[in-house]
Amino acid sequence: MHHKHYLDKRSVPFISELLVKHYLQHPGYTEIVVICIGTNRYSGDSLGPLVGSRLFERLEGNPNVHIYGTLDKPVHALNLQKTLTAIAGKHSRAYIIAVDACLGQYYKIGTLQLVEEPLQPGASLNKQLPPIGHIHIKGIINNYGPLNHKVLEHTSLTFVQEMSAVISRILVKSCQDIIPRLASKQLPGGQVPSRLPAGN
C-alpha cells in the first residue's frame, strides 16, 4: 500500500507513477477500465461518482479508456454485480482500476491510498460484495466508528469534491502514460494476459 495526503503537491506524480509501474508489471492489456464505486445519495459516498464524472469529462471519446460510475449513472451495491458482468463481456482484456471512498482513523482523513490488489467494496459497512479490479485507489473521507452510515451522510461535500479533483488528476495522468503502452487488440498466437479477480 502507498499513501499520500490529497493536499500534498507530490500526491499526483507520486501515485500516478506507482500506478503506471504496476501496469508495466502486467503488460498485455488492450484497454483501461476505471470503475468508480459509490452513490450520489450521501456526500461521503459520492467520492467515486464525482471522480467518474470528472474523468468522463476529460476522457470522453477516448477509445482506450472506459469509465463506469458517475453521478448520473453510479455503480453501487445494487448494480455492482451486473456492472462487473457487463465489463467482463465487453472488456475481457482490460486493465481495471477501481476507486472508492473509505473510512479510517481520524488522523488519516484526507489520505489517498493506492493498493496493488482488487478492491473490496463496502468493507466499512460490513457488506459482502465481489472484489474489483487489478489495483485500486481509496480516499479516506471520514472517521471509522459505530455509526458509519451517519458518518457518510455528514461528511463535507466540499472536502469530497476537492479530493475527487486530485484523484481524477492522478488517473488522467496515469491513463495518458499507460495508453501508449497498451497492447494491440491481437496478441501473437491468440494469447490472453492473466487477470486478477474482477468479480466475474
UniProtKB/TrEMBL annotation:
It comes from the Bacteria. Keywords: Hydrolase, Protease. SUPFAM superfamilies: HybD-like. GO terms for molecular function: peptidase activity. One of its GO terms (biological process) is proteolysis. InterPro entries: Pept_HybD-like_dom_sf, YyaC. This is Spore protease YyaC.
